[in-house]
Task: structure prediction
Amino acid sequence: MEIPYVAQTLFPLVWPLIAVVGALIRTRKNPSPQARLEIWQRWWAVAALGCGSLWMVLAFLGAPGVMADVIGFARSPFQFEIAFANLGLAVMGFRAASSSATARERITIGLGAGMFLWGALIGHVYQWFANGDHAPGNTGGVLVCDLLFPAMVIVFARRAQRLAAVKEPALV
Result:
């Protein structure tokens, strides 16, 4: 049974969708901006970055042939390395979801994830235009996820820093 191209290319968007829906449900009755922001940060970190990356670990280790086809590449030992790079991202995402994670730590996690995922994004776009790779795992949803997973971790953490600065003015 073949999964249609559109379903394959849109599948990665399930992780940010879960994060958004979960955060919307959890924040709908919470009046505190700080509490709402913390909920959004945790949902994004655990669902999008954490679970999204863990899914990639399982996919690359469990079905490397399928993943090679989905991204439009030949099967390669490189996929094993991608699996474990994603395991690192998953661990960072789960750490960022912790109640003890600071805004600074979350920014660092977002930047670390960004170095890998934004590099992957550039690689996907390059393969798309230079080699005509329109495979569902090389275009579409994966591009959005590679951009947004780390960016939103950073944006939420910066917003938390700003809210904390307004709440607790610096001593002069």
